[in-house]
Amino acid sequence: MSMRRRTLLKVIVLGDSGVGKTSLMNRYVNNKFSQQYKATIGADFVTKELQIDDRLVTLQIWDTAGQERFQSLGVAFYRGADCCVLVYDVNFIKSFDSLDNWHEEFLKQANPPDPEAFPFILLGNKIDIDGGNSRVVSEKKAREWCAAKGRMPYFETSAKEDYNVDSGFLSIAKLALAKEREQDIYFEGIPEAVSETGQGGGCAC
Question: What is this structure's pTM?
Answer without folding.
Answer: 0.82
